[in-house]
Each structure stands twice: as C-alpha cells, then as structure tokens.
Amino acid sequence: MAAADDLRFDPWDPAFLADPYPAYAELRGRGRVIRFEPTDQWLVPHHADVSALLRDRRLGRTYQHRFTHEDFGRTAPPPEQEPFHTLNDHGMLDLEPPDHTRIRRLVSKAFTPRTVERLRPYVEELAGELVDGLVAAGGGDLLKDVAEPLPVAVIAEMLGIPEGDRGPLRPWSAEICRMYELNPSEETARRAVRASVEFSAYLRELIALRRERPGDDLISGLIAAHDEGDRLTEQEMISTAVLLLNAGHEATVNATVNGWWTLFRHPDQLAALRADHSLIPTAVEELMRYDTPLQLFERWVLDDIEIDGTTVPRGAEVALLFGSANHDPAVFTDPARLDLTRRDNPHISFSAGIHYCIGAPLARMELAASLKALLDRAPTLTPTKPPTRKPNFVIRGLEALEVTLP
Q1: In the chain, which end has fewer C-beta atoms inside a 10 angstrom radius, N or C?
Q2: Which long-range contacts (CB under 8 A, 24 or more apart) does 18-27 make?
Q3: How is the chain split into domains, by residue range?
Q4: pLDDT of the residue at 48
C-alpha cells in the first residue's frame, strides 16, 4: 500500500481538474491501492483491478442489504437529507441483489433495445435541428445549444414527460448530481433535498396520470412491467425515472463537450474524422475513453478484500478511478494519444458487471447523432476561447464551450 500524502492527486485543485491524467500515471506508479485520507477512501487506479472489482460481489454500491449503519461502522445520513436518500437509495444504481436484480429485470422489460432503436429517427432529426440553429446563429455555446438539449429532450420523450414540463428537469438533475461529488457541502445537500422533493412530487403526479391514461412511453411501461406477479413500487418507479433522466443525459452532455474540446486540441484527428465519417463509431468510443465524463465510481467493501498484499477491510470505501483505468498503458497502447481508429478499446466508461449502464446503447446513439450532425452541417466549427471547466471531479465536464463558424 502507498500513501497519498505527497501525490499530485488533488480532486479540489483546479490545475488537477484541468488535466488529471499525469497525476493518475503517478498513482499507478505508486501501486495498486492507495489510501487517501481526505475522503477516507482507498484509490484503485489500474484497469485490471477496477474492472475486476466492478464485478466482485464482495463489494457493493450499498451495504444496507446486509448491515445497519452501526454494524458497518458508518454514521446514518442526517434526517434532513431523507428525501434525497429515499430517492437515491431506491434506484438500481445504489441497490444490490436481490433488489437490484428484481428492479433491473422489470425495468429491462420497458427499456428494450427495440424501444431505444425506435427513437433513432427522433434523435437524428433533433440533432440536425439543434445544429442548424447553431449554424444559423453563426455559433454559440455548444453545451447549451446542442449538447444539453439533445439528451434531455430524448430521455424526456422516452419517459413521456410533456414538452411544457421539461424546463426544471436539467436544474433538478444538476442539483441532485452535485451530491455525488467528494465531500459535498451542507448547502449542496440542502439544494439536492429540495430538488429531490420537487422532482419526486412531479413524477408522482405524472405516474398517477399514466395509471389512468397509459401512453406509449417508458413510465407507462414501468407501470405495466411485471414478472410472476412482481411489480415496481411507486417509489421504485420514481427513483428509476430520476436515475434514467440523470444518468441518461449527464454523461452524454459531458461526453459531447469533453469530446469536442478534445477534438479541437487534436486538429489532425478532427481533420481525419471530417474526411471520413465512417470513423464515427470508433471515435465515440475513443472520446469516451480519452476524457471520460465519469471519473470515479465508489464501492463499499462488504467483506475483506486483498489487493496486492494489502487488506482493505470490511466497512471501507474504494474509489475506482475510471479516468485512470482508461489511460492504463497495460491495456491501451500509447494511452495519452488520441486515436479515433482505435479498435481494441475496452474502456470502462459505462462501468461493468451488474451495474453496467443500461442506457449505454442510447448514449452511443445520441453521441453519434450529434457528432455526425456537427460534422455534416458545421464543418468549419472552431472554438472561440479555451473553455472553463466545472469545479467537479467525479462528473467531469465544462461550464460552456463557445464556438464559431468562420
């Protein structure tokens, strides 16, 4: 085991946030598991370990299916945060078997490949319309004008949320997702609680409406989904809808702007992509690897594990560093090089194991659609200035990406 006292790994340092990858290389050189006191976590930076631990049932996204807070040596969340934790803890992402298995099976009945594929014409048409608007204006903010509205509209359309109700979705999501950063503040928690209450109340009303008048949408599908008499509870439906909305657009928004900022900084690769649109599928995967929108995924240690001779005890929390794993030279040839033709690309940006992203096919479709629309309709797209990066580590993105079409 190595200590992290003198490392450049500092998830609150703007210089680190601007480019964490050299610090990741240093972490990998220090060992396979590194104790990090500021967050009371064990950092895991190597691809092989991250991939294996994502599949290891001795770890879990929760521990409450086996232990009380006291038994696990942890403190229960403050009572005033209950609305956030009720919403968060009933979603698939923060459950373990058997509840995770049951809910994912039921959700999968509504969230089918056919359901996703049926959205393709809508996704591609909307991507084209958004890019046309950017072109007509001579440029703008790629995040606000294209990257953000596309996945928000798509997942809202999929869920069956009326257009007139979609305004608060992104703000609610942003407030909730700030709780996933390291050591969130009390003010962050208060805002997340308020968003959780408002979002849950809205969805409770929408679910009641869909019970009376079912439609051809995912919420109606979640209401109807059953398996041997088992159904989702109302709270499980609410938590699932919020998870699908949050995960269904946060990653795509950030992957889009991270990807384009990467392309702008690699003009040879951008030129190759503009010349050959058949590279789009491998480009999507490489951009997701190169600057992944989710840098860290946490797991609780339910039973002692050993990593490279170091025992990580039950009750500890491991921080699986996706960004570091995706740049591990043991897996990726010349990982610091952007290569849009890279074929052997086992990145873990969509996680792995039982929590592998159920929305990965939809995210890939959206990323490819917006990339193609921008390549086709805005071939001279260039940035006007270096962007400001969000002061976040776990969910990595930009505040804005100003572009022009000279």
Answers
A1: C
A2: 18/389, 20/295, 20/323, 20/393, 21/323, 21/324, 21/327, 21/336, 24/321, 24/323, 24/324, 24/327, 25/327, 27/321, 27/324
A3: 2-404
A4: 98
